[in-house]
Amino acid sequence: MITKEINKDALAEVYYIISNMEDTYTYKIPSCVKENIVKYMNKDYKYDENEELLPETKALLAVIIEKYFENIDFNNKLKEYIKYYNIKDNEIKERKYNINEMFTNNKNTITTDSSLIVITEDKWYEKFLKFVKNIFKKSKINY
User: Fold this and answer.
1) Is 92 helix (H, G, I), strand (E, B) or coil?
2) Neighbours of 128 (CB within 10 A)
3) What confidence tens digit (pLDDT) does each residue in 72-128 have?
4) CA-based radius of gyration for the chain
């Protein structure tokens, strides 16, 4: 089973919504589910009805409705909704990671400057003098 940590604020929103449902719907949700929501929710979270629900709250409510309520029309619409957004998500990924267009896109072209860079090399005796100076510098530090 794949588990993911659920946002505690989303659980608090779900609890608020479930607690304000009619009793005919509330009884359909098993008590163990309600107990787990209460156990893991953020008890300090204040739900504001004017703000939009968190995406995790929407997902949790969709799972609860699909699993515990017997509204066949809603469940079918929910499945169509999920299928539609999965298809849209896959299309976006296909466009983004299309292999055929990946190498034809010229946004990342390398520009080269036509000017030449002059690299000067030290002569052998200059290298030798630097080496000797470095030895004396190191020996001064040791004292």
Assistant:
1) helix
2) 11
3) 676 677 778 778 878 888 888 888 887 777 666 555 555 665 667 777 788 888 888
4) 33
CA distances from 43 to 71, 87, 99 (A): 31, 37, 48
What CA–CA distance (Å, rounded) separates 72 from 70? 6
Tokens of 93: 């990924």
Closest CA to 57 of 104, 114, 18: 18
DSSP secondary structure code for residue 115 in this structure: S
Please tell me the distance from the alpha carbon of residue 74 to that of residue 84, in angstroms, as a whole number: 15
Torsion from C-alpha of 117, 121, 122, 125, nearest 10 degrees: -160
CB burial of 9-32 (b: ≥16 within 10 Å; e: otherwise) equals bbbbbbbebbeeeeeeeeeebeee
Closest of 73, 64, 10, 59 to residue 33, by C-alpha: 64
Say if CB 33 and CB 66 are below 8 A apart. Answer: no
